[in-house]
């Protein structure tokens, strides 16, 4: 019983229809085409699958993926974290260099004896963030 029903559905899908496009002013046939429901279904599904594949390829292999929510955020956060760490390190080194230059200036002016500079271990820098 199920096989006869499937045969009936398949026969209905294979039944040919004629698609005719007429010129409305002259009623001449411009284009004529024989179609079946199966052909139309296959054409629609093929166009849909190809469109989805093109969309997936465009998103995955171009910079469009960064506009998708949640896709590019991890890489951006890691890059931002690395840049912040590098900036903090550069600020710290700049402060150390400024202190060193200031001490050299004071030694050259004679405000601090050179012996006192050599006794100091390291420069103390506040680790608090400033503008």
Describe the structure.
- This protein is mainly alpha-helical and 131 residues long.
- It has two domains: 2-67, no CATH class; 73-119.
- It contains four helices and two strands.
- The protein has helices at residues 2-14, 37-61, 73-109, 114-119, and strands at residues 16-22, 29-36.
- The protein has a two-stranded antiparallel ribbon with strand order 1-2.
- The mean pLDDT is 84.
Summary of the model, kept short:
The chain has 131 residues and is mainly α. It contains four helices and two strands.
- The number of domains: 2
User: How many DSSP helices?
Assistant: 4
Distance between the termini: 83 Å
Say how many strands there are.
2
Indicate the topology.
Elements: H1 2-14, E1 16-22, E2 29-36, H2 37-61, H3 73-109, H4 114-119
Antiparallel strand pairs: 1-2
Features:
single chain, 131 residues, mainly alpha, 2 domains, two-stranded antiparallel sheet, 62% helix, 11% strand, rod-shaped
